[in-house]
Structures are given as structure tokens and as C-alpha cells.
Task: structure prediction
Amino acid sequence: MPERPDLEHQVPILARELVGRRIEAVEVGIPVVLRVAVEGRVQELLPGHTVVGVRRQLHFVRMALAPPPGAATLELVVHPMLAGRFQLEPATARVTKDTGLCWTLDDGRSLRYRDREKMGKVYVVPADKAEAVVPGLVPVGLDVLDPAAFTLQAFTALAKQRRDQVRLFLMDKQALDSFGNCYADEALFAAGIHPKARVRELSAAQLSALHGAMVSVLTEARDEIARRDPPLPDKLRDFVKVRNRKGEPCPRCGDTVRAAGVRGHDAFFCPTCQPDDKGRGFVSWRR
Result:
């Protein structure tokens, strides 16, 4: 899915291109991605609305709308999940089969939400009800990239409340803003911590290393994506060290990168650089 470094590149582009633009028409290509929490068809609800704001909240993109006279104030909330992406095209350009929704704008372009896996969701909700009706749109936790908020002291205090595995902790959006699968793996690799280690068993030195790794991994990814300035639909991952590199040599020690299941998700790690120090019976990758 697009994660925080991706969205921090994409959302300003969307804001620059969309704010002030009026929606003229809406086409639904993949109905399963659409969720409408108000009465009516989206093709009739959205035309006439003007985009007045675009912002990131966790892994969601929120688009504030100003309604035409007499209409209810609505908001678009997009959760791209695994394969969702945005594209701006001339309205006359060919619409691809993976286009879930297409908004025709008043400047002759169209905003398209594309999703080949059909897993993402586009919510049309009352402007004051988004957090109540959109699953996963929870209050934001500690901002990892805010040095005033994400201090080692604050992070340590938060970690002391946890009894779960460290990768689950990193993925908890109500605790931390915010990690997905990719950068959770990258931060744990940078810190030398096994993804299944229990948070309560981490030493002060490990918590300090993880705190620093979380900041550096997100910062470096954000800066690399900004430097390369990919087109809006593109997702850069070629610079990551372990994510989706199962069977490849670890860039640090040369051992083979492995994958382990953590609550239904694959976690990629190096068994040498991220050892299971507690010996709780995980698979021995050295056999």
C-alpha cells in the first residue's frame, strides 16, 4: 500500500492540482471499491462540489468538499490499501480497466482512482461523520517525524504499556503515525530487532535503537522519494533493504533474508542481524 513516505509526496501534489477544482461528473468503474454513507447515487451526489482541501490522515487521503447551494457538505476519504493509486489525466484519455472511480473536473482533466486488486476503498461521507463511519480512520498517535512529540522518553513510556509483538506495535496507528508493512520491516532491520520480539522484553538500549531507526527510516524514505519525484501513480520501493527481498542476501551481513508470519502478514528480516534472543521456539532458520 502507499505508506506515509509515499503519501507525503502524493498528497501535496493532489492538493496543488485539486484544490479549487469543481467536480463535473463521476463514473464508477469498480463498484466494490465504493462506500457511500449518505442517501443517493454518487453520480448525482458529487457533481457541483468543489475540492477545498486535501490532507493525509494515517494511510488515508481526505478530500474536503464545498457543496453547491442546497446540498449537504460531503467528504471523500480514500484508503488505497495494497494497490490503490491516483492518476490525473485529460478527461478524454482512455480509462483503464483497473479504474475504480473517475472524477471529471472543471478544467478538462479527470482524477482517477486505480486499483487492480480491488482492495482499496473510496468513502463518500458526511463531512462531520468521517471518523465515525470509516473503518480504521482512528485518532492519530505519536507523530514519528515530529521531534517535539516523538521523544525517546515519550516512545519509551508508550512502549512500556505494550504486551504485544514489536511489529504489531509499530503498525498500531492509534499509537504511532505511522508505519505500514514495508517501513515497519525496514525500521526493525535498522534497529536489529526480530519482528516477533515482545515489546516488554526490549532493553532500554533496544528501545533507543528502535526509536532512532523509526525516525531515520521514515525520514530517509520520504527524502528519497521527494528527491526522485516520481509520477503521481508510481510507488518507489527499490531502495528498501529487506522488504519483499526473501531469499536475497542481507545487505549488511550476507545471510539470507527470510519471511515470517505476524498476525497474517509477512514480515521480512535477517536472522543474523535480527536474532531471536529469547529463544521462544520460532523457526530456526539456521537448520
About this structure: The CA atoms of residues 116 and 264 lie 21 Å apart. The chain has a mean pLDDT of 95. DSSP finds seven helices and 13 strands in the chain.
